[in-house]
Design a protein that fits this description.
disordered N terminus, five-stranded mixed beta sheet, 331 residues
Amino acid sequence: LSISPHLYIKNMKNIRQICQISLICLIGCFAPSANAQSASLSISPPVVEIMLAPGKKITQTFTLTAGGDTTLATPTLHLATPTDEDGHVTIDPNPLVPSSIPLIYSLSGPAESPTLTLESATVDTAQDLYLALVFAPNTQEGDARTTTITPGIAALILVTINPTGVMPINLDLADFNLPFIHDTWSPLSLGPIAKNQSPIMVRPTGEFVIAGPTGKNIFTRHLYPNLILGNSSRKLSFLKADCEKVESQNCADPLPFSWQPHWSNLGPHRLTLTLTTQGGTKITQIEKTLWLFPIRQTIIIFFIILLIAVVVLNTRRNSPQNLLDTPQEKN
């Protein structure tokens, strides 16, 4: 009895597929199941800014909304520290040790709407404390083969303890770097950074102005009033053109720090970046000069003219009149 090689290969493929399907079924029966709790959590308010005088007390109630049949664990207080120039913070995974901060705190009420009470101790100089009230669903202990994913959420509590009432402000501008010349074809994208040299958080505002060669302002944008935590940095961004306050819903999102020049913006331009307090007091200011020139448009026009010149010369060279005027070589 002889077996065709093609039939043998086909049978081997079928046997291999059957083995793979059987293995998948066995893994599906005996593998640990992952029950992901799709708990949608939201908290209000998400961020609280508090200024306390020594010996004073304040209370704040948080409201947590959890979707489904999620049961919440008791919220815990943690330390938070600024991490980058985009305003993000890192939350300490360990609960706060009460003796490590000059605050006396207590939590009361149900887990869905706890009330936090803060009382400041006596301090000599102003200082900030950044806390996070962390909420998480209860982890249910069931089958050992069950893996539970427990999402969490936190509310930031930014506290300033100020014994004098005077806010020390020490802001510097960095990374406001401009090229000597810029092509008007592409947008001018900048990344200035405000550095808070004091241990107290501050929410500056300000504006960015571009003046043309005649001194007339051709571009003005108000800065987005980002909160800069103590001893940290924050990238600057713009408010929308028709916005003056962030409270409006259409103005909640900042715009990137960029400007698209018009092709007619030529020559030296003066760029002025100013940081001010909420009351309008100037904190710091930087002025720089930038030359604008349509580099790409000039190159394109040059090659178009060069192409037209080559076509015209070739047309004239190959015209019938030039062919008649060309002397014929004698044999």
